[in-house]
Design brief:
Blueprint lengths: L9 H28 L6 H30 L6 H34 L4 H4 L2 H28 L15 H5 L7 H32 L6 H34 L5 H26 L1 H11 L7
Helix pairs in contact: 1-2, 1-9, 1-10, 2-3, 2-9, 3-5, 3-7, 3-8, 5-7, 7-8, 8-9, 9-10
């Protein structure tokens, strides 16, 4: 249905979502390009940033093109299998993003608390293993939900009051009692996010203790700068995400269009803003952007 209650404004609402999608494509692609071309960025922190960029690209691409086809072309139909595929990708990717944020917190902890052992601890092989573990965990979280939901009988309405195949909206179409799945859809993300944020909090607690002991003021400012960027990205991800989950599950008094719009923004704003936050707040990334995309100096 797109955004229920705001159908008359769909054409106009497609403009900001299209703009956010284009910025997300350009920004995250830029991150991947500068890390690929600039040798100084071949370190664990930027490998994790590349993982985040790929996740953001997949997340935005999973929903925005179909959303725009609803807004601009009135193309509201989606095949049964395609709906569950979209649902699996959207929600497993959000779980993967939480894992990447945890990995980035661990990276900052090692870099600041054990700088001399940083390269030895976070080798390229170790970073690859962490990336595979993040994807495996995300798949394991969403596979049971998708399997259980496909087994539910769907004999009534086939109208999803949402802009994409959001799992709680799809569950409500089932003819059987969906309480077990609904509870899993709330408890699962809560445990996952709660565990990740607990470990992230511990990491940053140790970082705050270690920063004053750094040798120079420049090193302290650099450590605080990179950590501040990471904290901004985490707040941008976790706060709207949990608000969206609990609003979808328990927000009976919240207007439906508000619930749907919050869920849409949660999946489109972070992919757009994450590259901006890192490129604007991290001097090393700024220098790499200028080196790769800036004007080339003529040789003397």
């Amino acid at each position: 249905m797109g955004i229920p209650g705001l159908e008359a404004s769909h054409v106009w609402m497609g403009i900001p979502f299209c703009s956010m999608y284009i910025i997300a494509l350009l920004g995250n692609s830029m991150i991947l390009i500068i890390v690929r071309l600039d040798q100084t960025l071949h370190e664990p922190m930027y490998y994790f940033l590349c993982m985040l960029a790929v996740i953001d690209l997949v997340m935005a691409t999973s929903i925005v093109p179909k959303m725009l086809s609803i807004f601009w072309l009135n193309s509201m139909e989606i095949a049964f299998e395609a709906c569950f595929t979209q649902m699996f990708f959207v929600h497993s990717i959000t779980a993967a993003e939480s894992g990447v944020l945890l990995a980035m917190a661990f990276d900052r902890y090692v870099a600041i608390c054990y700088p001399l052992r940083y390269q030895a601890i976070l080798t390229r092989q170790k970073v690859t293993q962490i990336g595979l573990a993040i994807l495996l965990r995300a798949g394991l979280v969403m596979t049971p939900v998708t399997w259980m939901m496909k087994r539910l009988p769907h004999c009534g309405s086939n109208v999803i009051a949402h802009s994409y195949c959001e799992h709680m909206a799809v569950v409500k179409l089932a003819c059987a009692d969906p309480r077990a799945i609904s509870q899993y859809c709330v408890v699962g993300p809560t445990l996952l996010v709660g565990t990740d944020t607990a470990f992230i909090s511990v990491s940053y607690g140790m970082i705050l203790r270690a920063v004053p002991r750094l040798a120079t003021k420049e090193a302290r400012l650099k450590a605080i700068g990179t950590c501040r960027s990471h904290l901004c990205v985490m707040l941008l991800y976790y706060v709207p995400g949990m608000a969206s989950i609990y609003t979808q599950s328990f927000g009976q008094g919240v207007a439906r269009w508000t619930q749907v719009l919050l869920a849409d923004l949660y999946l489109t704003l972070p992919p757009m803003l994450n590259p901006v936050i890192y490129s604007m707040r991290t001097k090393q990334a700024q220098d790499a952007v200028l080196k790769v995309f800036g004007p080339k100096k003529d040789p003397v």
